[in-house]
Amino acid sequence: MINKGYIFCLVVLLNIILFLSFEKIKLSWEISTLYNNNENLLVEFENLKDLNLKLITQFHIENSPASIEKTAKETLGMQKKAPKIINYEK
């Protein structure tokens, strides 16, 4: 006949195996979720890098001397003065 201790050990081992199986499924799901989050973050990072490059380019274009001069002429109505001629004789 089967010993009661043997049956108890078998039940305990089956419960441990069941628990570990559930933990494995849970960890696999968490790893999958983290992998998907990582992919989403990489895509978002690339989008932000592109946006940053566009903003830096726009900043340099708008703050260039030619752009400032154009804005001064068109919006403020300023005109460029002719340089004065200075004669220096000894």
Structure write-up:
The protein is mostly helical and 90 residues long. The chain has one domain. It has two helices and no strands. The protein is rod-shaped, with a radius of gyration of 37 Å.
Distance between the termini: 130 Å
* Helical/strand content category: mainly alpha
Domain count, please report it: 1
Tell me the fraction of residues in β-strands, as a range: under 5%
Average pLDDT number: 91
Helix content: over 70%
Annotation field: number of helices: 2
Please give the radius of gyration in angstroms.
Answer: 37 Å
Low-confidence stretches: none
Largest sheet: none
Order of helices and strands: HH
Topology, number of strands: 0
Which outline best applies? rod-shaped
Assembly annotation: single chain
Tags for this entry?
mainly alpha; single chain; 90 residues; rod-shaped; 2 helices
Could you give a quick summary of the protein structure above?
This protein has 90 residues and is mainly α. The chain has 2 helices and no strands.
Ordered list of secondary-structure elements with their pairings:
Layout: H1 4-62, H2 65-74
